[in-house]
Amino acid sequence: MKLKFFAIGVGAALAFGACKKDDNGSSVQVDQQLQEAILEASGGVGPTFYTLPLSNDYNKIPQDPRNPLTAEKVELGALLYHETGIGLNPKQTSHMGQYACASCHFASAGFQAGRWQGIADGGLGFGVNGEGRIPDPSYDPSELDVQPIRTPSAMNLAYQEAILWNGQFGATGVNAGTEANWTPGTPKETNNLGYQGLETQAIAGLGVHRMKMDETVCQTLNYDALFDAAFPNVDPSVRYNLEHAGLAIAAYERTLLANQAPFQLWLRGNSNAMSEQEKRGAVLFFGKAGCTSCHNGPSLANMEFYALGMKDLYENPNPVFGADANSDANLGRFSFTGKEEDKYKFKVPQLYNLADSPFYGHGASFTSIREVVEYKNKAQKENPAVPDSYLAEEFKPLNLSQGEIDDLTAFLTNALRDPNLMRYQPLSVRSGHCIPNNDEQSKIDLGCN
Fold it and tell me: Which of 53, 202, 305, 370 qualifies as a cystine partner to 333, CB 3.0-4.6 A?
């Protein structure tokens, strides 16, 4: 039986966009200004340069040639991504089968954690949208499955060859020639498999985040037929393992595209999909504000790293674990390459559905999109530990007025928000467990039996 997803559909999304028209109607002038700004920012290509493909149009989605997309692989990956039944290596047996990839990257939070620091194994609860997840008091802080940096989004990653804030996962692209840094005995060793970043991270992540997959687990949870369909040409003796589970998850993650966001609908010809204010903000984004010097292409990101002087996670006013002033994560790209010029540089993030998880910057030091825009506009570092000499040349005052900040914030908040991400979450997983967590408090919070 094929996997069924929650879906409103593109047609409904178009109807949603048509309802966003301002009282005074769409301004032909601002639409023309936006068309011209997009043409300039895209190097003459125009709207198609920024258009995300449909999630089932596999031929148009960037993919690792060693892991070609198929419907069967994506279906398996969607289930495994949300399957707490493979969370079988917890630090305490009481948390067996209670966490999944989706615990820190779930649909309603824009595939982020919904809080300043994601917690997988060792976490309890969900709250309304992830904010209510807390550490189990029985866990020592050192036992918690957390990262010393804010959980990045899992959306639109098909356009990134290297993954994580420091870009350490991926054997190609910007990581070509970094083999000396693929440290044996660490997750970075997974780069030796030769995959792109998304595949490498998915495979390594299953081990790092205490998941298990082998033939016994596969058969117990009734996934063997799905593995067979997804990897028919792989020898059965190695088919049901973490590598192929990771490849399926990566295939699914490549389809997580915010292609129903109002801006995407506008790019496809619906001039009423964005409000006038959002359009003015878009004109600024692609023009005067200079955002596309870093945030460009379909996912509004790139594969570069910049030092913007933001605070680190250990400085967050909320309780954090596994992060301190000496965390390698604070050093950004340098923590992977060891190159002095890479200190304090972090990968440019994608910009869709930021509003769904109100924490921004690698250290979650901002709690609103407007705060980030104001920070970029002033270009005054907030982290004294970052020497001025390391700051990016692009980090300079934008000279935007308060009205322009309002417009740019509206574009980032509303026009880049896909309202229907739940279409990517399966109705159920083979274990029958709750999604995205399966501990007792999460079940209560989620209304899941």
Answer: 305
Stretch among 4-13, 44-53, 144-153, 225-234 having the lowest mean pLDDT: 4-13
Whether residues 173 and 37 fall in one domain? no
pLDDT at res. 315 = 97
Mean pLDDT of 105-115: 98
Share of the chain above pLDDT 70, in %: 94
**Closest CA relative to residue 363, chosen from 303, 409, 317:** 317
Cα dihedral 102, 108, 110, 111, rounded to 10, equals: 0
Give the SS3 label for residue 84.
Answer: helix
Domain match, 329 and 437 both: no
- 226, part of any domain: yes
CA distance 242 to 208: 11
Distance CA 268, CA 18 (A): 13
What residues contact residue 46 under an 8 Å CB cut-off, 6+ apart? 35, 38, 39
Task: Tell me the two tokens of residue 284.
Answer: 């600024």
Residue 187 counted as domain residue? yes
Q: Distance (Å, rounded) from C-alpha 25 to C-alpha 138? A: 58
Q: How confident is the model at residue 297 (pLDDT cuts 50, 70, 90)?
A: very high
Place of tokens 């739940």: 422
Per-residue pLDDT at 267? 98
pTM of the complete model beyond 0.85: yes
Print the domain residue range for 299: 10-59+259-415
Contact 156, 111 (CB under 8 A): no
Q: DSSP for 316-345, please give it.
A: -SS---S--TT-GGGGBTHHHH--GGGTTB
Pairing of strands 134-135, 346-347: unpaired
What's the whole-number mean pLDDT along residues 310-337?
A: 97
